[in-house]
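Apologies for my clumsy wording, but could you write out the amino acids of a protein and the tokens describing how it folds?
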Amino acid sequence: MLFETRYFWAIFTAKNPEYVNKLKKIFEASKTRFASSVSIYEVYKLTLAHEGKTVADLRATTIKKQMTIVDIDSQIAEEGAMISHRLRIPMADALIMATAKGLRVPCVTDDPHFTEVKKVWV
């Protein structure tokens, strides 16, 4: 499965223990765990704004240790551009969705933009 930015943000910031446990169960049930380098960018940027560099570094390191990171190559970039154009969605969402499509894996997200891939969420 490809874990999308909203999954990481929920895991790192949710206050409800039951909700966090449900998210952790998705992680534990996943045989393959991917994350786009775009999600690292988004989590790092959001964390810098809210909690500072030390926490941003810790979160990025955690993601990199737990996931196989998929960088954006030209194929993902082109597919992402087509998705963004077709659906009129933000670049980051389109690139992450293109990554999931390229890997042929479901995406762990609750983002309503993710219409072209199978979604897994609580």
Remarks:
- The radius of gyration is 14 Å.
